[in-house]
Amino acid sequence: MPTPTKGPRLGGSPSHERLMLNNMAAALFEHKKITTTVTKAKRLRPVAERLITAAKKGDLAARRRVLGQIGDKSIVHELFTSIAETMAERPGGYTRITKIGPRAGDNAPMAVIELVLEPYSPKQATVKEAEQATATAAAKEEVVEEAPAETTEEAADEAATDEVAEEAADESAEETK
After folding, report:
1. CB 95 within 8 A of CB 32
2. How far apart are CA 43 and CA 39, in angstroms?
3. How far apart are alpha carbons 139 and 121 in whole angstroms?
4. DSSP structural state of residue 162
5. Would you list the domain boundaries of the chain?
6. For labelling, which of 54, 152, 163, 166 has a CA lying 20 to 30 Å from the CA of 9?
């Protein structure tokens, strides 16, 4: 768990805050998304991301470390099998916090924290693919533009050759007369 924040804690004591965040992380892994206050969601994010990073390692020591924080073996199994496999290529940012407005009873700001389960596509790879596609398209256009120019030059050369051949034929015809 990250270093506890200074000042007031969620739920009173540091141990209660830690237990609350671990239980919220278990609920997040079980349901893939939970609705809570913005403050709790912001405090939950580093805890959940650290547990997912440990699950991505996948070894026995990491499993025991996670079991020390989340007591339910079925949730830990789901974390290590399905969630860690989905997040395997993602370098970080496993959770998303979306603000949804105030709570009806006490006007507390609410948020939805959810796991980012969409497939990861690195931006650099996407940019490189786009650049390659642009370069390929530009090369095709150059070939298309050069081809008519060559045919015009070839046609001009052929026309000039034909004219010279016709003139030569005309001259030879005149000489025979």
Report:
1. no
2. 6
3. 27
4. H
5. 14-118, 121-177
6. 54
Does residue 20 carry a pLDDT above 70? Answer: yes
DSSP state of 59: S
The CATH superfamily label for domain 14-118 reads Ribosomal protein L17 (3.90.1030.10)
Taking CB atoms within 8 Å and a gap of at least 24, the contacts of 101-106 are: 103/37
d(CA 123, CA 52): 22
- Cβ atoms of 49 and 99 within 8 Å: the answer is no
Rounded to the nearest 5°, which phi and psi values hold at 99? -75, 135
Name the one residue in this structure whose structure tokens are 């150059």.
142
What is the DSSP code (8-state) at residue 121? Answer: -
Does residue 35 carry a pLDDT above 70? yes
pTM listed for this prediction: 0.66
Q: Which helix (H) or strand (E) holds 160?
A: helix 123-176
16 vs 9: CA distance, rounded Å: 9
pLDDT 10s digits, 66-80? 999 998 999 999 999
Q: Are 34 and 27 spatial neighbours (Cβ–Cβ below 8 Å)?
A: yes
